[in-house]
Specification:
The structure is a single chain. By secondary structure, this protein is of the alpha/beta class. It has a domain of about 90 residues: Arginyl tRNA synthetase N-terminal domain (Gyrase A, domain 2, 2-Layer Sandwich), CATH 3.30.1360. Helices cover about 55% and strands about 10% of the residues. The protein contains 21 helices and 12 strands. The strands form 4 sheets. Strands 5-4-9-10 form a 4-stranded parallel β-sheet, sandwiched between helices. The chain has a 3-stranded antiparallel β-sheet with strand order 1-3-2, covered by helices on one side. α11 packs across α12 and α20 packs antiparallel against α21. The radius of gyration is 28 Å and the shape is globular. The two termini are about 30 Å apart. The structure holds arginine. Arginine binds next to β9.
Length: about 575
């Protein structure tokens, strides 16, 4: 579709320059004005002429009439002036043949904008706080982050995925303190992460009644920082347990990381940055703490050192960014966290700029909204948490139940139940613009009838089964006179893929892909119901429709894997 847009832009620009010799209108400028009307009745590509009214000093309907007088062949069937719009109609027979040919030739790389070749991007995502539960709140950073990674890889970037584990800080003091008071080795060995989370929650409950517990926790953390052996041993043990737990969830999602360097990794890398801040005269004392004043940029001060000299979250992020710049020479470093951390990132990004690091403008924060489940807000401290693994488990069980209802004999294989159950949650989550607050309703996510993951995977499986019946070699799409309207609509939906990929990358917004998948599935299912494919009597038409089904299979499969879903050949 993009090449067609380019051709339409060239036609318009040539015509405009002929009719208005001084207008200086370029094809690039027209390209940006062209739109894809949501309703194909208004044409496939449209130019809203009011955008030209200023340059050409004419009323939009008049401009449309003047520009309309062009020869649209061979790419377009017709050009029409309707009100203030110039509407192009695509010649679908030739376009479909070209598109299917391109997709068959490029396969899995079709749609890549190839903008990342030779470039490196670091992605910091998931990054749970060790020993706290890995809960539904982490779904966003984990799946948005991984999907952005896959999109960047698709565009040719060399990607480094980093799990910046929250493996340092006072929460370890709390956990050590709680373990010593109420925990037992046996209990933690048996129930691993669950036992740790209980201890953590209990600490917060008891500390509300007895605030001296917080002092004890701080003291335990101080001991840890000073290298106390007993505390270090416990700390390592808690991390091992947590990592083992996270791996199970990452495996279900097909996620791997290139580095698990968490916050503790930067302990010895912070003094150099603090020293630099001091040398540059950026540090100010504020009630005993060292901060960078950001009032000029309307932000509260960025905290670098606490009164007792210990470091903070921003200090570790600054040291980590410097390390990554030196280690990976990134072209971009992306951080995916909840929108609640937006100020934190804005602050330390500014500090890095003030420190004079030339790569400060390559840091990107990608925020997202909150999640509730069945209308309930979640909070770790109050113990009202839904663990990600429990949510996935519930989804997988439900899928098995549904498939048993649908078909009593077929035992749904674990692998498929997992792909569909986990995929349903991911798809539901990524259906929305990332900044929206989401309420996850399991029933809705798992429905096979709605705009859901199971529906998309089912549609993919449908294309596989048609192709399996069609035989070994996929025929080419041959131009037939006039494709069926459902076929034209499918070609139109299919051809939007490169644009959606580009938009998803430009705006760090995987939901463009999810919505593309839904559009494509709707168009394919309409085509499937309205057009005979394998049973079509005209063998040329049948071949073309098989070729189109194969193109849908390639692109739909690619799109699904870009948002962390598995391609399910059978459901
Ligand atoms: N551990 C943090 C949290 O759970 C997220 C870390 C994000 N990455 C970073 N470099 N700050 O809130």
């Amino acid at each position: 579709m993009l090449t067609l847009k380019k051709q339409a832009a060239e036609l318009v620009a040539d015509k405009a320059r002929a009719a208005f010799p001084d207008c200086g209108l370029t094809a690039e400028a027209v390209f940006d004005m062209l739109e894809f009307p949501p309703d194909p009745a208004m044409g496939d590509i449209a130019l809203p002429c009011f955008k030209l009214a200023k340059t050409l000093r004419q009323a939009p309907p008049r401009i449309a009439t003047l520009l309309c007088d062009i020869n649209p062949a061979p790419a377009f069937d017709s050009v029409e002036a309707v009100g203030g719009y110039l509407n192009f109609r695509i010649n679908y027979a030739s376009f479909a043949a070209r598109l299917c040919g391109e997709i068959a030739a490029q396969g899995d790389t079709y749609g890549s904008p190839h903008c990342g070749e030779g470039k490196t991007v670091v992605l910091d995502y998931s990054s749970p706080n060790v020993a706290k539960p890995f809960h539904v709140g982490h779904l966003g950073t984990t799946v948005i982050g991984h999907s952005l990674r896959l999109l960047h890889e698709f565009a040719g970037y060399h990607c480094i995925g980093i799990n910046h584990l929250g493996d340092w800080g006072t929460q370890f003091g709390k956990l050590i303190c709680a373990y010593r008071k109420w925990g037992s080795r046996k209990e933690v060995e048996q129930r691993e992460i669950e036992a740790l989370v209980e201890l953590y929650v209990r600490f917060h409950q008891e500390a509300e009644a007895d605030p001296t517990l917080d002092d004890e926790a701080r003291a335990e953390f101080k001991k840890l920082e000073q290298g106390d052996e007993e505390n270090l041993k416990l700390w390592k043990w808690f991390i091992e347990i947590s990592l083992r737990e996270y791996q199970k969830t990452y495996k279900q999602l097909g996620i791997t990381f290139d580095s698990y360097n968490g916050e503790s990794f930067y302990t010895d890398k912070m003094p150099r940055q603090v020293e630099l801040l001091r040398q540059k005269g950026l540090l100010k004392l504020d009630d005993g703490a060292s901060v960078v004043d950001l009032s000029e940029w309307n932000m509260p001060p960025c905290l670098i050192l606490k009164r007792d000299g210990s470091t903070l979250y921003p200090t570790r992020d600054i040291a980590a960014a410097v390390y990554r710049a030196e280690q990976y020479h990134f072209d971009k470093c992306i951080y995916v966290t909840s929108a609640g951390q937006s100020l934190h990132f804005a602050q330390w990004f500014k500090v890095v700029e003030l420190m004079g690091y030339p790569w400060y403008d390559r840091l990107v924060h990608v925020p997202y909204g909150t999640v509730s489940i069945n209308g309930e807000k979640l909070s770790t401290r109050s113990g009202n948490v839904v663990l990600l693994k429990d949510l996935f488990r519930a989804a997988i069980d439900k899928v098995r139940e549904i498939s048993r209802e649908k078909n009593e004999d077929a035992e749904c294989r674990e692998e498929i139940a997992e792909a569909v159950g986990v995929g349903a949650i991911v798809f539901y989550y990524l259906s929305n613009n990332r900044m929206r607050d989401i309420n996850l309703v399991l029933e809705d996510a798992l429905s096979f009838d709605g705009n859901t993951g199971p529906y998309a995977q089912y549609t993919y499986a449908r294309t596989c089964s048609i192709l399996a019946k069609a035989g070994q070699t996929i025929p080419a799409y041959t131009e037939t006179d006039a494709p069926h309207p459902a076929e034209a609509a499918l070609v139109r939906a299919l051809s939007a893929f490169p644009e959606r990929v580009k938009a998803a990358l430009d705006e760090y917004e995987p939901s463009y892909i999810t919505r593309f998948i839904l559009d494509l599935c709707a168009a394919f299912n309409r085509f499937y119901h309205e057009c005979a494919i394998l049973t079509c009597e005209d063998s040329r038409v049948r071949d073309s429709r098989v070729a189109l089904t194969s193109a849908v299979n390639t692109v739909l499969g690619r799109a699904l894997t870009l948002i962390c879903l598995k391609k399910t050949e059978k459901i």
